[in-house]
Design brief:
Elements: H1 27-34, E1 40-44, H2 51-61, E2 65-66, H3 71-76, E3 81-83, H4 91-103, E4 108-112, H5 124-130, E5 134-137, H6 143-156, H7 165-173, H8 178-195, H9 201-204
Parallel strand pairs: 1-4, 1-5, 2-3, 3-4
Helix pairs in contact: 6-8
């Protein structure tokens, strides 16, 4: 009896700029960050769309510092700055960091789930300043992006998959968003552990 072969769906991890998957949904954001000479960037897009990953690549390429609990340290250093999850930080401090970068001719990247005009700012000066930034958007996922993300997540969880039909089956039934793909893989991971079975269409049903 021949041993059944598993469907080979593994691929390179997205660990750097060269391996980051780029298609129509994110190509403008990718090129905007890495193929021009702008100083001030505002990157936005849906949750789980890869904004933070792009930000980490930008951080390394530009020898930047990420804002965390280090406001005073950043002000003292002449380094480029990245701010991920804009709304998680004090708006006045963000405003001072933006001004500091502009005055010192430093680069700054700000990342958000929302467009500037969708954010309810309490500090109007920050809103006005951010509207001068170069805006970059990651769009909603298309079929190619959804399949790539699903493949990546299943590979990371080390699922055993014998048929590529499983991918199509999941994508026909999932919430077609970055968050939706992440949610379904988490649920499948829990289910497969509970049932102690490999991932199959009957199990998913």
């Amino acid at each position: 009896m021949k041993k059944k072969k598993n469907f080979n769906y593994k691929f390179k991890n997205f660990l750097n700029e060269e391996n980051y998957f780029v298609n129509d949904t994110n190509v403008n954001a990718f090129n905007g960050l890495f193929n021009n000479n702008f100083q001030n960037y505002f990157l936005y897009g849906p949750k789980k769309s890869g904004k933070s990953f792009l930000g980490q690549i930008w951080l390394k390429k530009n020898n930047a510092i990420q804002l965390k609990n280090n406001f005073k340290s950043i002000i003292k250093n002449n380094r480029n700055v990245m701010i991920d999850r804009l709304t998680a930080f004090n708006e006045e401090k963000v405003f001072h960091l933006v001004n500091n970068c502009i005055l010192k001719n430093l680069k700054i990247l700000i990342i958000s789930d929302k467009k500037i005009n969708e954010i309810s700012f309490g500090f109007n000066d920050l809103s006005s300043r951010l509207k001068t930034f170069y805006n970059l958007e990651i769009g909603k996922p298309d079929d190619e992006m959804l399949l790539t993300i699903l493949t990546k997540l299943l590979s990371e969880r080390q699922f055993i998959i014998n048929s590529k039909d499983i991918f199509e089956y999941i994508l026909r039934r999932v919430d077609r968003s970055y968050q939706g793909i992440n949610n379904i893989v988490t649920k499948l991971d829990i289910l497969s552990l509970e049932k102690k079975r490999q991932l199959t269409i009957p199990l998913i049903k």
